[in-house]
Amino acid sequence: MDKNSNGLVSNSIVALIIALGLIASSAIVSNSLIEIKGAKNSIIVTGSAKQQITSDMIVWSGYFSVKSPVLVDAYKHLESDRSIVKSYLLEKGVPEDQIVFSAISTYTTNKTLPSGQWTNEIDYYNLSQTVTISSKDIEKVTDISRQITELINEGIEFQSNPPQYLYTQIADLKVTMLAEATKDAAKRAEMIAENANSRIGSLRYADMGVIQITPLYSTEISDMGMNDTSSIEKEITAVVHCEFEVKQS
Question: What predicted TM-score, i.e. pTM, was given to this entire model?
Fold first, then answer.
């Protein structure tokens, strides 16, 4: 056999080996794809849990202010008003250690010309101070927040802010709620799997959603979560996204 014939035979053998190799590789890849696809048979569900809670703490604040062209006089006036405010709160039954006064805020207002242009001459000083109460006695402090503007009758410029109603056990409750939401997700997954003649296996992945704390019976939600402080009675909702393995029955 001449050299050309030997070359043709060699090339044919090489081509055959390559072809067989490609076929084998394709079979391996195909089998791998099937195994991977089978390994990823899963179901993703969302579970939730709700519970009604009652606020156990109130935080309320208000502020009072004075004006005077003389700074010393303004400070003395504010001291007198602070004493009246404190006495009012003590008479209402608020313990002294729950009454917190902030530092005094001071700013000035300059005089203006008839043209409306500001001058460098001070017209008056404005001093203000905030008082804050944190208490477990929600009913009492709520009443005070509504009535304290009575001090206006005594010449005190007082502004009352809306109370904030808090639930101090929220950290522990969140753990319980997330566990309940996960159980709910498992039940949902089981129902879906049964309808498909399958059953769920192990939990592969769980993602905690945001916590919604809303006024009772409210339908308002937020993608960032909500933490309502405006109402005494609230509802907490926990959400989890779970992925379960699915097996053939």
Answer: 0.75
Give buried/exposed letters for 115-127 (b at 16+ CB in 10 A, else e). Answer: eeeeeeeeeebeb
Sign of CA dihedral 19, 25, 31, 34: negative
pLDDT tens string 24-61: 444 333 332 223 334 468 899 999 999 999 999 999 99
- 143 pLDDT above the threshold of 90: yes
**Pair 224, 85: CB distance under 8 Å:** no
Question: Furthest-apart CA pair in the chain: how many Å?
Answer: 125
- Positive or negative, the CA dihedral 168, 209, 205, 194 is positive
Rounded Cα distance between 155 and 45, Å, is 61
- What are the DSSP calls for 159-191, one per residue? EEPPPEEE-TTHHHHHHHHHHHHHHHHHHHHHH
Quick one: DSSP state of residue 70?
S
The pLDDT value given to residue 40 = 60
